[in-house]
Structure formats: C-alpha cells, structure tokens
Write a structure and sequence with these properties.
alpha+beta, 18 strands, disordered N terminus
Length: about 325
C-alpha cells in the first residue's frame, strides 16, 4: 500500500519551509542588531495608512456660493440671488409649487439649486426649502414662495418686476411678498409723468407689423414686440406702477387716434395718471422690459396673462391667435 497522500505530505513541507524562514529571519536579526527592527516596521506602516487617506480624498466639498442673500432696493431689504439681482415670488404659485414654465420661465428664470444649497448667514435657513419643477430640477423656495429672477432687471437694485401683472412681487428676507409697495410706486410714477408731459409725447409710437417665431405680431416703431394683458377688461388699462415698469405702455400724445392707424382695429384709452394708451382691438398695448431687440418675445405667456398682440387686434395664445376668448 502507498501512504504518500497529499494530506500527509503537504503539511510537512509547509512546516519545513516555515522553520527555514524563521531561522533565516533570526540569523538576519542577530547579524544586523536590534536597531534595524524599527526601520522595517516604519517602512511597512505607510503602505497600510495610504489607502485610508485616499478613501476620504474624493469627498465633494460643499459650495460656498449662497443661493440667496439680502440686498437693498427702493423697496427696502429684499432677497437677492448670487449675482445681487432681486428675487420675486409669483402669486399664482400654490403650495410652494411653481406654475411658471416655458416662455414664462424665460421672462422669470427660476432660482435653480441643488439639495446642498446654502443661504447667507444673515438669513434664517429654516424658512428655505426646495420644490421640484416639471423638468426635475430643484427650485429654491422662501416661505411658501418659489423664487425667480426677472429678465428685465439688469443690475443689483433693479426692481422692474415689482408688481408686474399684479402677480409678481419682490420677497422680503423673512420670505413674504412685498405687495403694498405697488400703490406707492403708482403714485410716484404718476407724479413723475405729470411733471414731464413733453417726455410722454416724445414716447408716442406708431405700431408696425413684425415677424417672430410666434408669427406676425404688432411691434412698436423700433420693432419691439407688443403685448396685451388679459386682466385689462373692456379696453381699460390696469397695469400701473411697478407693473408698468416691467410692461411699459404704448403711450400716444392724446385721445385722438394717431394718423395712419385703422380705426376699425385701433383705439385710445386713458390711463389712471391721465396719459393715453394705444389699444389694438380691446387690448391696451404694452412692451416688455425683458425684450431687448426686434424679434424677442420673452414676455409671451408670462404669468399666463401676457400675450403677443396680433395685427387684427387679437392675442397669441400657444400656436393660435385669438381675440375674444379671454
């Protein structure tokens, strides 16, 4: 019988090799002296510690840019974005859910953040949160109001969006809307206009027809798009004060229709401040402060109340022109 099975021989080989290694190590230590042992231990230590350090290195650092700060405007202290421009709330937003998308969001860009957003130390972080938009991005919320910039504001301190359409208002550092400033702005604007009647007459514009991505629309003499406001009922303009800063009315010199305009389409209405505004169909006409060049239609659909005016006196809603369905 043969008795050289793997189970009886391999353990002996392992023990023999282990004995030889231990003996060699003992001779090495004896010949080098005890002072060499710490050197071996120190050489092995970094190899163990290095992976632990590399594991923590990729951790992302939190952004230091605050998504909201406090800025000073003619309205007082308001929330501003990271570039210092005024932030606004939209009264059509219910339960902190944004109702402004598409062309509305082009005129009123939402304040987009990530889940690790920060605000200025002077602000109460507890009033801030986020809401998920239809496209999956996160929008900053103060109080119950999703926050937006206004395309018509160019620099810190601008408040051209205040009171726009009577649905857009600047936001206080406490997360509330500044809605009582519109009346003050209306009075101030009215006083300024009364003191400068010549400037109003110089602002008179004759309308023209322009081509845009939305089709043929009415424009002013400079080619800027003209809009109607669906809150204006029976041809009576209701956009005043801060609203009129964002949506400047098309002013004409008097109640008399300017020469060259078709009386079956155009008329003139009187504003609260005594000035006269041009109407197309039943819609008083306005420009939009967020449009900078001919062909711009950034105000289209803003707040679901502002729409481009058509040459026949109607308004453009979506892909269709309508004049009586508002």
């Amino acid at each position: 019988m043969h008795d050289n099975t793997p189970s009886s021989t391999k353990p002996k080989v392992h023990r023999r090799r282990a004995s030889l290694v231990l003996a060699a190590f003992a001779l090495l230590c004896a010949s080098c002296g005890s002072s060499e042992v710490p050197i071996v231990a120190q050489a092995e230590a970094p190899a163990v510690d290095a992976p632990a350090e590399s594991d923590t290195a990729p951790a992302p650092a939190a952004s230091s840019a605050a998504a909201a700060l406090v800025g000073t405007t003619a309205l007082g202290d308001v929330l501003v974005g990271d570039d210092g421009r005024t932030l606004y709330g939209f009264t059509n937003d219910i339960d902190a859910t944004s109702a402004c998308s598409g062309t509305c969001a082009e005129a009123w860009p939402p304040v987009i953040v990530d889940e690790n957003f920060t605000v200025a130390p002077a602000l109460d972080v507890g009033i801030f949160a986020t809401t998920q938009r239809d496209d999956g991005t996160l929008q900053l919320v103060a109080g119950k109001w999703p926050l937006y910039f206004f395309a018509g504001d160019a620099v810190p301190g601008d408040i051209a969006g205040q009171g726009s359409g009577e649905v857009w208002f600047a936001v206080t550092p406490e997360g509330t809307l500044i809605t009582d400033a519109a009346d003050t702005a209306t009075a101030e604007d009215g006083a300024a206009e009364e003191s400068e009647p010549a400037e109003i007459e110089e602002a008179a514009a004759i309308v023209a027809v322009g081509t845009t991505d939305a089709g043929d629309i009415l424009t002013d003499a400079d080619g800027l798009s003209l809009y109607g406001f669906t809150d204006d009922v029976d041809g009576v303009p209701t956009c005043n004060g801060g609203c009129a800063d964002a949506w400047p009315p098309v002013i004409v010199p008097s109640a008399e229709l300017p020469a060259g305009l078709d009386g079956s389409t155009f008329s003139v209405s009187q504003r609260d401040d005594g000035s006269f505004q041009l109407n197309a169909g039943k819609w008083p006409l306005y420009r939009f402060a967020g449009d900078a060049a001919p062909g711009d239609i950034n105000g289209q659909g803003s707040g679901d109340v502002w729409f481009l005016a058509t040459p026949d006196g109607g308004l453009v809603k979506g892909d269709e022109s309508e004049s009586d369905d508002y």
